[in-house]
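User: Structure with calcium ion, tokens only please.
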Amino acid sequence: MERSRVSGPFRIVESSLRQCEEFIGLGQVDCGIPRDACVTTVELNAPLIVVIEDEIAILRFLNASLSIEGYRVKEAENARDGLLLLLQESPAAVLLDLGLPDREGRELITELRGWSRVPIIVLSARDQEREKVAALDAGADEFLSKPFHVGELLARLRAILRRSDGIGAGGESHAQARCRRTSIC
Ligand code: CA
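Assistant:
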């Protein structure tokens, strides 16, 4: 492979997965791209996950877990800030707590479904069947009861992103997401 095919970070963002993997195949050594420029540029195209959760410890844990997996994360600690975030951003998915300080999470789902198809995963300590049914009927895509295993959450998130044809509301393909996770130059 000629080096010129992967001579700059923007090439990675625009590239297909195959090209991206060819790039990775260079072995992360002497690829000719300044490390900071490459990582920063590719990170801009990672899927954005909005987390709406009022328990700070869980919020931080989710942020760290998602970031390690290569997702971008934006946080809101209440329904109002969450809605503002969702109006401003185009996330690939939303993780939503039902018990928020200013509003019921289920109301938020209903409102959101009036203008958005963004995948929603509910994370809640309310594990009664009627709560799950109500959240799913309101428009949630998944329901995970707290405490949950982060591995299962990540798997369900990947499944949801696959079902949404690999293109989140932010327009990023899984090829780019995979590239983001694996390419460090
Ligand atoms: Ca809560």
